[in-house]
Amino acid sequence: MKQSELTPMTDDQLADQLGQLKREAFNLRFQAATSQLEKPSRVREVRRTIARIKTLQSERARSAAK
User: Fold this and answer.
1) CB of 52 closer than 8 Å to CB of 6
2) 10 DSSP assignment
3) What is the pLDDT of residues 9-53, one digit of tens each?
4) Contact 9/17 with Cβ under 8 angstroms?
5) How far, in Å, CA of 36 to CA of 42, rounded?
6) What is the spatial distance between Cα 16 and Cα 64, in angstroms, rounded to a whole number?
């Protein structure tokens, strides 16, 4: 997901999306360990999207604290 797709989401939607991506990352790690990973680039995409969501959440928390 791109930043432009994440920005309009609410905090609850971001938290749900983060949970789904963390589960997917967990499953991808198992697939990689058992050599069943079909698309290795998906691991990188998921990690980066998780980082984007966490960054957006921290930015929102910081602006709300001011």
Assistant:
1) yes
2) -
3) 999 999 999 999 999 999 999 999 999 999 999 999 999 999 999
4) yes
5) 13
6) 20
